[in-house]
Amino acid sequence: MVCTFFGHHDCSNTNEPRLLEAIKNQIKQGTTQFYVGTHGNFDTMALSCLRSLKQKYPEIRYSIVLAYLPNDSGIYLPDETIFPEGIETIPKRYAIDYRNRWMIDHTDTVVAYVTRSYGGAAKYVARATKLEKRVINLADDEKIDEVALRILREHHKAFEELAK
Length: 164
Hints:
By secondary structure, the chain is an alpha/beta fold. It has one domain: 3-Layer(aba) Sandwich (Rossmann fold). The protein has five helices and six strands, in the order βαβαββαβαβα. It has helices at about 15-30, 40-55, 95-105, 120-130, 140-164; strands spanning about 1-5, 35, 60-65, 80, 110-115, 135. The chain has a six-stranded parallel beta sheet with strand order 4-3-2-1-5-6, sandwiched between helices. The N and C termini lie far apart (about 55 Å). The model has no long low-confidence stretch (mean pLDDT about 85).
């Protein structure tokens, strides 16, 4: 099984433990291949998590999927770097879209962090949903956490009222 990632470029590092747990769950469910992009903090966190988990789970593979071919032949590209087939024919202004669509087309599950209905991350999560890919939005867990905290606060206030 294959998993890929989409999240807002400004995703906070406080979400890294939740992301790490989501990746572990994917591994336990049989995911062995992961695709990660190169734009924004969510991608950076996903790559960091994958690199650390590779030591504990040597059977997993991950690929950094590039949107652009490097201009300088002297640029070092890590072994885990790949280019979607056909991207060399795509104008640069459409390359990220092409890469992201390729990632969705070649995945079973999307792990996302989407808190707003606009922007690239939301666009590609919507596409994955339309194509009936499994989507795990870590921000949904965050909303559940906020609701749980509000309920606990309300119960705590009610308990204090009764104790008076």
